[in-house]
Amino acid sequence: MSNIKEYPLVDTTEPNLLEQTFDYGLPPMIHFDGPAIEVIDGRQVEFDPALLKSRDIVITDTTFRDGQQARPPYSVEQMVKIYDLLAKLGGPNGVIRQTEFFLYTKNDRETLDRCRELGHEFPECTGWIRAVKGDFRLVREAKLKESGMLTSCSDYHIFQKLKFKSRKQCMDSYCEVVDAAFEAGVRPRCHLEDVTRADIEGFVLPFVQRLMRMSEQVPDKLKAKIRLCDTMGFGISYPGVELPRSIPKLIYKMTQECGVPSERLEWHGHNDFHKVHVNGGSAWLYGCDAVNATLFGFGERTGNPPLESAIIEYIALKGGLCGIQTEVITEIADYMKSIGLPIPDNYPLVGKAFNTTRAGIHAGGLRQDERIYNIFDTTALLNRPPRVALTDKTGSDGVALWVNEFFGLKGDKRISKIKCHKVARWVTDQYEKHGRMTAISDEELETQVKELMPTYWEKYKG
Amino acid sequence: MATVKERVVAVTARVLQLDPKEILPEKTFTVDLGAESVQSIELVASFEEEFGIEMDEDAALSVENVGDAIAFITKVCKEQDVEI
C-alpha cells in the first residue's frame, strides 16, 4: 500500500510568514512536535523536549580556562573586562551561570579576586585543578565553593597518559581527591575527560556510581557534579549511535542508571568534527542542564561550543530572552577584536560579514523586506543592521540598500534606486571598465555618495 | 518643440549609445536594445530629468518597450501638470 498522500494547494493572497516560529524580534524559535526517541539497551526511551522550558538549563563558561589554552594569556585587565561583559550578557537570571579559573599563578589568583570584587552574582567563579589532593589548598585559599578536577576516563588517558597500572588504581586515586574536596568543603566537579572514547560500562559508570554513593554522605552543596568532556569531539547527537559516542545514551546512563541529577550534569564539547554547537544543544535536550562554552568557540585545538551561539540557542529553546542582553554579544566581539582576537568575516553572529549580502538578487530582496535575507532583527538584537557589500554582482538594488543604510533611512523616507543611479554606474564601471577584482569598501562608497548625491548628502550628513 | 516620442528616443539613444533610427516603438529596452540593469535605472533617471517628473520606481521599471514608455511618460506628465 502506498504511503503517498495528496496535498492540495492551499491558495491564499496573503503570505503565511510562520511568525510563531520566525518572530523577527527574536532568534527563530525551536518548537518540538513530539518526543525525541532513542533505543537504549533494546528499549525505546522517550525524552520530552517540553521539559526544556521548565528545566533550569544554563551556560557555563570556560573562556578563561579552555579558552586560554588556545591563545596567549589574557592580561588581568582583559579578563576582568571580559568577566564583566559576560555578567552583563547573561543577565540577572544567571543564564551564564559559572565561569572557571586557573588557580596556579599569582596572575590567576589576582584575576579571580578582581572579578569577584565586581560583585556580580553571575557568573559564579569556580576553579580548575588537576586531580591532585594538594591542589585543593589553592581552591580553599581562594575561597571557592566549587572546582573542576581532571578525572580522565578513557584508557588512552588512564594507561597511556597517566600511566596508572590498572583502572582500579586510577579510580581509587580520583576518589581520594574527591574525598579531599569534601574535606576542604569544596564541591568537586569531576571532568570525565575523553568520555566519548572511554569504556562506559567498564569504567565510566562504575566510577560515576561510586561518586554518587560518596556524595550521599555530604551536604547537597558539596555533592559531586559530573562534566562529560568530549575531549576529541567524538560525540554524536544522532539517535541510534552506539556508546561511547552517543550523547543521548551517555546522558541517559548518567541520569537514569547512575542517578546523576540533571542539575549536576554538564556537557563540555570540542569542535574537531564541526559538531560542537549542535552537540551542546543536544546535551541540553537529553538531560544535561549545563553546557560549557567559550566566547567565539576559542578553545583547545578546534575549540568549544561558542558561547554566543549557545545564548541564541537558549533563547530559541526557552522562547524568550530571559534577561539576556543579546546586544552585548557585539560589544564583546568588538572588545575581543580590539585586543587581537581574530574573528573571521563570515563567523556567525559577530563576523564583519555575517549579515552582509553580496548578490544583487539578495540585495533586492533585502531592500523590499529585510526579513527575506536576514536571520532575525540583527539591528535590535545585536546592533548590527543587515548590510550589502558592493561587488560586480550587487546591482543597483544593493547600491540603493547601501545608500539608505548609510543615511539611516527607513520606510517612506528611503531613497529609490533611480536616485542612486550615478553611484550604481560608478560601481558598475569599476568592474566593467577598470577590471576591478575586489569588493568596494564603505569608505570608497561614502566618497562617491558625497560627490554624486550632493543634495542627499547635504540633507542627511551636512 | 520636440514631441514626447522624439524626446524619449533621444534620451534612449544617448543612454544606450544607439542610433536613434534603431529605437522603434515596438523595441523592448532589455532584449532588443540591450539595456543592462544599471542602464535601465539610468534610463528612468534620464527620463525624469528630461521631462521634470517623478516616476514610481516599480511602475517605471516594469515598462518593457519604447512605445509603452512614451505612453507612460505622457500619462505621468499629465498627472503632474507638466507641459509636453
Alpha carbon gyration radius of chain B: 12 Å
Please write the string of helix (H) and strand (E) elements of chain B: HHHH
Greatest interface: A-B, 12 and 11 residues
The main β sheet of chain A shows up as:
8 strands, parallel, barrel
Q: How would you sum up this structure, described in words?
A:
The complex is a heterodimer of chains A (462) and B (84). Chain A is of the alpha/beta class and 462 residues long. Helix content of chain A is 39%, strand content 12%. Chain A has helices spanning 51-54, 76-90, 106-117, 136-141, 155-161, 167-183, 200-215, 247-257, 276-286, 307-318, 328-338, 360-368, 378-382, 395-407, 421-432, 442-452, 454-460, and strands at 36-40, 43-47, 58-61, 96-102, 124-129, 146-150, 187-192, 225-229, 265-268, 290-293, 356-357, 387-388. An 8-stranded parallel β-barrel of chain A has the order 3-4-5-6-7-8-9-10, surrounded by 6 helices. Chain A has a two-stranded antiparallel ribbon with strand order 1-2. In chain A, helix 2 packs parallel to helix 3, helix 7 (200-215) runs parallel beside helix 8 (247-257) and helix 12 packs across helix 14. The mean pLDDT of chain A is 94. Chain B has 84 residues and is mainly alpha-helical. Chain B contains 4 helices and no strands. In chain B, helix 1 (4-16) packs across helix 4 (66-79). Chain B is globular, with a radius of gyration of 12 Å. The relative contact order of chain B is 0.19. The model of chain B has no long low-confidence stretch (mean pLDDT 94). The interface between A and B is small, with 12 and 11 residues.
